[in-house]
Amino acid sequence: MASNNNEHFNRILTALKNGSILIKEKRNGENYSRLFYLNENEDFISYYQPENVFAQAHRYYIKDIDEVHIGFYSLTFDGILRHKNAHLAGENLAFTILHNNYRNELHLMADDRRTRNVWVSGLKHLIDTQAQKRQRNLIRDTNWILSHVRFEDKDKSNTLNKAECKKFLAYSLNVELSEDSFEKNFQKVNKNGDGNLTPNEFIDFFHILTRRKDLYEIMQKYVKNGDDQSIETICMTTNELLHFLQTVQNQKLLNYPSKQSKDNFTVQSIMTRKQVQELINEYEPNIELQKKSLLSLDGFRNLLSSDDFCIMQPWCSRRTYQDMTRPLSDYFINASHNTYLFDNHGNDKNNPEVYNQALRAGCRVIEIDCYDGHDGQPVVKHEYSSVKAYPFESVIHFIEPNLFKTSPYPVILSIENHCSIKQQKEIARILKEILGNRLITEPPLSKSSWMLPSPENLKHKVLIRSIKSSVPIKDSKLLKKNEKFDNPIVNNGISDLFIYLENVPFRDYNYTKDHYMCLQLPSLSEKEFKQTSHSDPLGLIKQTRKCLLRIHSDNSNNPNPIDPWNFGIQIVAVNYQNNDSSMELCHGKFLDNGKCGYILKPNYLMHSDKAKFNPLDYLIKSSNKISKNILEYPQRLIITIISGQFLYRSNRNKNDISNPYVVVSTHGIVCDKQVQKTKFIQNNGLNPLWNETFEFEISFPQMCLICFDVYDYDIYSHDDHLAYFCLPLTTIQTGYRHIYLRTKDRDSTYSSLFVHVVIENT
C-alpha cells in the first residue's frame, strides 16, 4: 500500500516538474498566464518569464507554504467575482497558495479541473512532508545540503573551494571557525588534497560540523566504559538507555492506538526493554545497530530532538485535559484586538487572512469593526488608518470554515458596531445565514442566572459581543463622562444576536454586584486596571467570579497580560500583529490545554472569597507567607543552558555572524519575576556552548511562565532579538531537553536550545 502511494505521488510530482500553464490572478483584477513548475530538487515552485520581462521570476519555497485551498477561497477571488471578472463555474479551476506564515497569497486558475487537482495534491503532499521535518531531518537531508553547494558554487565546477566553504559557514550556518579548526576538518574530508570538496565530501564536511559533542559527553556518563569510546563508535545498549530514560529523564511515552489520530493517545511510563527497542527502531538510522539493539550518537540525537522528548509535556500541548465544564468566567481566554491589521497601527497594510491566522493560533475572541458600506452592505475596516475596507459578508464567509479547526470551544465575535440601523439588520442577516445554528440566539439559562455556561456546553458555538441598549448611547446614564462606546444595537431583529456578552462600562465591585448580570462583559483600559487593582484588588478579583472582564491597551502597544491574569481577568485583548514580549507571553500561556484557547484558572482565583488571594500581598520573596487557603506548592527550578543549534541571524542581509546569548526569565505573581542570562558566545550561531546553570525560586507555579529569549550581542548598537520560546512551568519535562525556538514574528524555525531541567519542591 505504501509503495503504491509513493508511486502515485511520484507521478504527480513529475507532472509538476514538467510544468503547467496557470493564470495568476491579482487583487486589482489583472491576470496573466505563466508556465509554472516545481524545480528538480522539489524545494520551490516558480514560473518561466516571457523573454521581454527582465524581472526575475518569484520563487515560492515549499518550506514557506502554509496551506493550499481550492475554489474561490480568498477575498481576492471574491472581489473578482463581485466585479464580474470571473464566473462561478471557474471555482472548479481555482486554487490559492498561502505562504510566508499566511501573510501572502498566490491566486491561480488552471485550464482544467484535473490540472488544478494535480497541483493541489502535489503541493499538499510536499507541505505535509516538509511539516514532518525537524532539525534532525535537516542534518541528513542530502538535497538541502547540496542546495548550498549549488548556491555557493559560483564557478559551476560542482565543487567548493575553501573560500566558498567559508562563505557557506558564515552566511548559511552563521558560524566562523578558527583557521586551525577549519583546516583540520577540511583536510579530513578532502581525500585527494586538491583544496576542493566534491558534493559527497561536502556532505561529510557538513556532518562533522554538526556533530553534537555535548550529546557525546552525556552518553559517556551513562554507557559502560564511556571514556574509552570515541564519538564515532559510542553506543547505548537497551539496558543503558532504559536506565537513562527512567532515572535521568523520568520519561513518559505516548501510545497511539491509531496512527491516523494524533489526538487519541495514552500516557505510559517506560518499564520494559521492549519499549526501549521500539524507540531504537524508530530513531536509530543505522539498520545494523538496530538489529544489535544499540543506539548511536546520531540515534541519541534523533531521540532527544523528537517532539515527544522536547521541553514541553506533549500531553499538555496536544489535547484538552483540563476540566471544561466550569463557567466561562473560570477560564483565561485567548483574545485578539484589532484583529484585521497585519502590522502595527499607522500602517495601511491589512489582510482578512489574519482572522484565520488568529483562529489557527487558538484565538477565541476576534474583533470585527463594522461601518456602513457605500452599497448598502456593511464593511470591515479600521477607523484611524487608510486600510482597505472589506465587505462584512465576505469576511464572515472567509472565516467560517476555520472557526473550529483548531479548537471546538466557543468563539466570541466582538462586533465593534458603527453602522446605521439599516446596515445593522444586514449584519444580523449575514451572521444568521452563514453561521446558522452555531450562532447563539437564545440563552440556555434564564437571565436571572448568576452563572455563565461552560466551554463544554458551548462547543462549536459562536457568541456575539457588542452593546445592547434600548436608548441612544449619548443619553445612557451608565456611561461615564467622555467614555466612548459603539453605536447601540436597538432593532429587535438584531438584539437577539447579542445575548451573552453585552458590552457595558467598567464599574467598581459595589456597583456591579447589584447591577450587572453574568451576561454582561465590562471592558476596562490599562489605566483603569492599574487604578482599580491598587485601590480595590479583592473587589476586582471578585468581579471575575461572575462576569467576564476584558482589558485593552490605551494605545497601539500591547498590555502586559501577566498583571491582569494575576487578578483573574479572563480576556486580555492583544494586537496579534505586534511582535513584542506580550505576544510571546500569550503564545506561551495558551500552548497549554491542547492549544484550545481556554486555560482553567487556579482555585484561589476561582474561589477568591475563601482564598482571600491578593497579588499585592506577594510583591517580594518572603514578604508574606502563603495562606493555607491558597493551594500552591512552591518549587525550585534549576536550568542549565547547555548549547544552541542552528541559531538564525535577525537580518539575513547583515554580514556579521551572531554573538548569541540566552535570557531566561520567569513571569507570574510579582514575587516570581526573575531574569538571568548567559555570557555571549562570539561568532557562533551554529553550535554555541554555554553550560551555565541558573536557579529560580517560584512561589506560585500555577501562574508562572518561563521564557527563553536568544539575543545577538552587539557592542556598537542594540542587541537584536533572534528567537524565543515560552511555556507554563507546570508543563515542563525534566531532564535533558531541546527547546525549538520561534522568531520574533512567531514563525517556527529549525533553531533550538539544549538544556537540562530540575524541578524540586521546596
Automatic annotation (TrEMBL):
Provide a GO biological process annotation: intracellular signal transduction
> Which PROSITE patterns does the UniProt record give?
C2, EF_HAND_2, PH_DOMAIN, PIPLC_X_DOMAIN, PIPLC_Y_DOMAIN
Matching entries from InterPro entries are given as: C2_dom, C2_domain_sf, EF-hand-dom_pair, EF_hand_dom, PH-like_dom_sf, PH_domain, PI-PLC_fam, PLC-like_Pdiesterase_TIM-brl
Where the record annotates domain EF-hand, the positions are: 177-212
Q: Which SMART domains does its entry note?
A: C2, PH, PLCXc, PLCYc
Location in or out of the cell: Cytoplasm
| Protein known as | Phosphoinositide phospholipase C
